[in-house]
Amino acid sequence: YFIFPVRRPCGMMVLVNPQSGRGQAIALYNGHVQRMLTEADIPHTLFITERQNHARDLVRSADLTQWDALVILSGDGLLFEVVNGLMERQDWEKAIQTPLGILPGGSGNALAASVHHYARASPVWGEDLLTSCGFLLCKGLVSKLDLISIRLSSGARLFSFLSLAWGFVADVDIESEQFRQIGALRFILGTLLRLASLRIYQGKLAFLPAENERGSDSASFSPADSRLPDHLLAPLEQPVPQDWTLVEEREFVLVLAMFQSHLGEDLLAAPDARADDGLIHLFYVTAGISRATLLRLFRAMQTGTHLDCGCAHLVYRRARALRLEPLSAAGIITVDGERVEYGPVQAQVHRGNVSVKFQ
Ligand code: ADP
Ligand code: MG
Predict the structure, then answer these.
(1) Would you give per-residue pLDDT tens digits along the chain (359 residues)?
(2) Same domain, 287 and 167
(3) Judgement on whether residues 192 and 243 belong to the same structural domain of the protein
(4) Which one of the ligands is nearest to 21 CA?
(5) Ligand 1 pocket check: which of 15, 16, 20, 79 to mutate, most ligand atoms within 8 Å of Cβ?
(6) Ligand 1: which of 15, 74, 176, 262 to mutate, judged by most atoms within 8 Å of the beta carbon?
(7) Residues with CB under 5 A from ligand 2 (ion)
(8) Are 84 and 217 members of one domain?
(9) For residue 113, what is the domain's CATH number?
(10) So which residues are the catalytic ones?
(11) Total domain count for the chain?
């Protein structure tokens, strides 16, 4: 009889972006991660990315049966590449079930901070957060994470696990990239600079409130793409379905849709968010807010108490889907902290579609 060679999983694929944060990710691997994984008896192979979208290409063509998990030691941007690379595969349905792990090595480590928060641990930063996430990873339990489908006006489709931002937050995220050398402090510096030249952004915002779970029949978006149909969305050229709420205000300082609890390592934007709550935690700040109040909101966000400030310009809604149509001629929209094309955009949550190693 024949003995067929059986291909066995060979541990974790650890993806590192050497440019993330202050460029310290490889030092973090050598100083902490390697030892942690070795002590936990977890075999792994290190992959150092050489360019943007390298990780995306790698996971798009990888033999996933070889790996127990794909672990990202970087910021949220590298995980965004990995999630989208998995979703671009022919076998996306199976591929997205591959357990993912996140170890904070960038300047924007929002998912790592969220994962730590869900473990009901008290807040920590920097290398302590890395140790905590490393510990959760080594425990090896797998949880579910929501996946959010994002549709851009060009017809492009992206998948997100963290946030969609326009206005103040998106501007700070992208404009502060030039201060990458100072790590997470870049967001504080960026916030102060953007506050100094506070801008108003014109646009239309609509959303499907979480209570209207079912969605109306006028929705149902069914283009050629058969991956995760967005049954709550109508095409961008058509009006939003009837059961959506149209926000009356047209002038905003920011629109921020959160899919996890943290916007940054020390920004607890959506304190009640859970990994697979199936919710879009939608925040917007309308024009007319003073600089002092806006700064107060961001400071309160460090402890997740911004909704207790009694600020009439800050609105919070729970949603399943949303549409944003910027009217200002130019601007920045980010998905998971990465810049995407500017223009009308809509999003719908798909509950619990990603597997993440943590508990
Ligand atoms: P940070 O939190 O510091 O922003 P990210 O993980 O978000 O770190 O990565 C920042 C950007 O760098 C992302 O857009 C990512 O796609 C890109 N990137 C990944 N690998 C490389 C590389 N080797 N060189 C340059 N950019 C890279
Ligand atoms: Mg980033």
Answers:
(1) 555 555 556 799 999 999 998 899 999 999 999 999 999 999 999 999 999 999 999 999 999 999 999 999 999 999 999 999 999 999 999 999 999 999 999 988 999 999 999 998 899 999 999 999 999 999 988 999 999 999 999 999 999 999 999 999 999 999 999 998 888 788 999 999 999 999 999 999 999 999 986 656 556 666 667 889 999 999 999 999 999 999 999 999 999 999 999 999 999 999 999 999 999 999 999 999 999 999 999 999 999 999 999 999 999 999 999 999 999 889 999 999 999 999 999 999 999 989 888 75
(2) yes
(3) yes
(4) 1
(5) 20
(6) 74
(7) 75, 77, 108, 337
(8) no
(9) 3.40.50.10330
(10) 76
(11) 2
Residue ending a domain, among 124, 147, 170, is: 147
Ligand approaching nearest to the C-alpha of 15: 1
Q: Find the radius of gyration of the CA atoms of the chain.
A: 20
Q: Would residue 266 count as lying in a domain?
A: yes
Residues 6 or more apart in contact with residue 336 via CB below 8 angstroms? 76, 77, 79, 80, 160, 161, 162, 163
**ipTM exceeding the 0.95 mark:** yes
